[in-house]
Amino acid sequence: MNCECGGNLEITLARNVQQLLFPKSSPICDWCCLGVKNRMARGLGGDFFDFLTMPDGCQAVILGDVTGHGLHASVVMSLLYGYLHRCSLNNFSPLETVLETNHFLQSFAERSQKYDHFFSATLFFGSIHPKNLEMQYINCGNLPPLVKRGEHLFTLNSTGPPIGFFDQPEIELRTFDFEKNDRLLLYTDGIAEAVNCEKTPFGLRRLSQILMNTDLNYLDFLEHIFEEMNRFGTPDPPEDDCTAIVMDFHEFMPPVRSEPGGVPQKKASTA
Fold first, then answer.
1. How far apart are CA 76 and CA 92, in angstroms?
2. 22-69: per-residue pLDDT in tens?
3. Quick one: how far is CA 230 from the chain centroid?
């Protein structure tokens, strides 16, 4: 009994420490609205995400999923999370960041053939310039992010294999130019591959239809995705970690400045 209670306390502590790693809120931008919703399958998990302002002023958006579930996935996730921070804030390019992170995971995998497969992950890393809304991105094995532009749907397909598997992976850097009123949706496989009691997957097609047919603000839209999963009959809590990020783009608005004499200019709306 004492061992069981002690184990539960340790899991609770590990879960609380993991939650400390995640951003406490979405960044406030003058050019987009950004939100995230995350649900771990077991309180602890391998999904990770972050929003980093790079030294060059670009906004980095990171989403990934470590191999496996539970405690061991959360340990690897924490290592990976910290290393991505180090690379990003040292002004590495997106491609340098991903290649260095791949090498970092490989260095652990080489130490044990028994556990080497746990030191791997899917990773989407995008860096968006606020003024022209150009994104440089790498998608290493993550399910393709979706972009809604009016009646059109774009997919940001994989540009390389999941990180941690290969010494010298072939990874391609691509660009995507966002426009005003675009909506970007990033998600992990816990959403698209969730199944109901009949073992029918929620599916990318259903998720795409929700994106194209829903006209809610970005925060309500995130809630709507998870509500639709519940209606579909996926388990609650989920069997796999679920994370969704949404970005709504609008025109760049310069920072508010005061007129001579201290009278503020009209403030541009932000989210």
1. 22
2. 777 778 888 999 999 999 887 777 899 999 988 888 999 999 999 887
3. 21
Helix (H, G, I), strand (E, B), or coil: what is residue 126? strand
Closest CA to 227 of 200, 193, 202, 201: 202
Interatomic CA distance for residues 261 and 270, integer angstroms:
25
Structure pTM? 0.86
Q: Which domains does the chain have, with CATH numbers?
A: 29-249 (3.60.40.10)
Residue that is written with structure tokens 């899917």 in the block: 122
Burial of 72 (0-12, 13-18, 19+ CB in 10 A): middle
Q: Is 147 exposed, middle or buried (0-12, 13-18, 19+ CB in 10 A)?
A: buried
Structure tokens at 198: 């009949």
Residue 248 per-residue DSSP state: E
**At residue 14, does pLDDT exceed 80?**
no
Helix (H, G, I), strand (E, B) or coil at 195: strand
Answer yes or no: are the C-beta atoms of 185 and 199 closer than 8 Å.
Answer: no
Instruction: Say how far apart CA 25 and CA 94 lie, in whole Å.
Output: 23
- SS3 readout for 5-61: HHHHHHHHHHHHHHHHHCCCCCCCCCCEEEEEEEECCCCCCCEEEEEEECCCCCEEE
Per-residue tokens: 218: 């970005």
